[in-house]
Design brief:
single chain, 384 residues, mainly alpha, Leucine-rich Repeat Variant
């Protein structure tokens, strides 16, 4: 496209805008070409346009939406939590990931680099991991943060040790992202350092993240720590301690967890304790049972994400999956949608007929989500 070679950056920028509006597969090649422009805002527009092909509507909320010459208004976008990712059945062309990956370390500005790192995470671009690793040496906190979160989304356990040196970063947001990623990627070698962070940090958010990361490792050596933190005045620490007990999976903890649950008044630790009891074998779905409590909270605006995360982990157990088919077929709209998404991520082909049945639900929103979940399930099954 000749306009992309025009000497006037405004003309090139308008050309990229036009390509984004056209969208679709035919826009990929020229947008890839536009990522090679030396103007950082054109790079940003091109990257957001490429993501928009795979996640329609992204340009309305990506960095492009806030592009102004005043850099502060652009950088404000990086304060927002980046939790988006394409559906697992969506296949991204390798050359798209390669083009964006080059900008992670070679973009014309730190904004462009951070935006590219965010895009790689959204596209689950495993091919760009080397560029993300290099970006971890950046002195720019936004580039660091977005690169860590992208690594977390890609979910390659071998990446865990790569972020370990950032566990004590002076930037709180970067430090917390590194701590969370260490837990998600199961870097057990970092456990001693996480304990040190928990013991020495004066920042409540950092201490919560450290205990939550430790709770991701089912290590009996942490039992005393969980016992110490379970009655803590900080509800987030109580919840993290309960998660730690959950992953120890010791049925003998049942009475102690039930007692703590009965005495708990805050929702977050209540859900964590329900998760722990379900992990210990309380998988019945009768009224007020731990598993039923978690399913019910899929309808909660404030705690849907928490309940979904716990149920996703529980659903890795075939016996729990069997218990979830009933609530998925008979539950509320939010319960059906949440459980469809949870079961689709397991890759268990036995869930296919249940999801297929849900695609015929009388609620069109449920049926649509069931169809999407069915595609994701088949993609997960094929990847195994």
């Amino acid at each position: 496209m000749e306009l992309l070679k025009n000497s006037d950056s405004k003309v090139r920028s308008e050309a990229v805008k036009g390509l984004v509006e056209i969208g679709g597969p035919k826009s990929l090649e020229p947008l890839i070409e536009a990522t090679r422009d030396n103007d950082d805002q054109i790079q940003i527009r091109a990257v957001d346009g490429l993501v928009n092909v795979y996640m329609p509507g992204y340009v309305a909320q990506g960095l492009t939406a806030n592009i102004k010459r005043a850099g502060s208004s652009i950088r404000q976008r990086f304060v927002d939590r980046n939790d988006q990712a394409i559906e697992r059945y969506v296949l991204v062309r390798p050359e798209v990931v390669d083009a964006i990956g080059k900008l992670v370390t070679g973009g014309s500005s730190m904004d462009s680099r951070a935006n590219a790192a965010r895009a790689i995470g959204i596209l689950r671009g495993k091919r760009a991991l080397p560029e993300l690793y290099s970006a971890l040496r950046s002195k720019d906190s936004d580039v660091l943060y977005e690169s860590i979160i992208a690594i977390q989304k890609i979910r390659e356990e071998e990446s865990g040790p790569r972020v370990q040196f950032l566990l004590r970063d002076l930037n709180e947001r970067v430090q917390i992202a590194a701590i969370e990623t260490t837990g998600v990627l199961q870097n057990r070698a970092a456990a001693p350092e996480l304990r040190t962070v928990l013991e020495t940090s004066q920042k409540s958010k950092v201490r919560r993240a450290a205990l939550s990361a430790l709770a991701m490792f089912p290590d009996a050596a942490n039992r005393e720590l969980y016992t110490q933190m379970l009655p803590d005045k900080d509800e987030a620490l109580r919840a993290a301690a309960a998660e730690g007990f959950a992953r120890l999976r010791a049925p003998d903890d049942g009475p102690m967890l039930q007692k703590a649950y009965d005495a708990e008044t805050k929702r977050a630790p209540q859900l964590a304790l329900a998760f722990a009891m379900a992990m210990d074998g309380r998988t019945e779905t009768t009224d007020n049972s731990p598993l039923r409590v978690l399913v019910s909270n899929l309808s909660s605006t404030g705690y849907r994400g928490v309940a979904q995360a716990y149920l996703s982990e529980l659903a890795l157990d075939p016996g729990v999956r069997l218990q979830l088919y009933g609530p998925m077929e008979r539950g509320s709209r939010d319960e059906k949608i949440g459980l469809a998404q949870i079961l689709s991520a397991t890759g268990d082909k036995q869930a296919e007929p249940h999801l297929e049945k849900l695609t015929r639900d009388t609620d069109s929103q449920v049926a649509q989500e069931a169809l999407r979940s069915l595609k994701n399930l088949r993609a997960s099954s094929a990847a195994r």
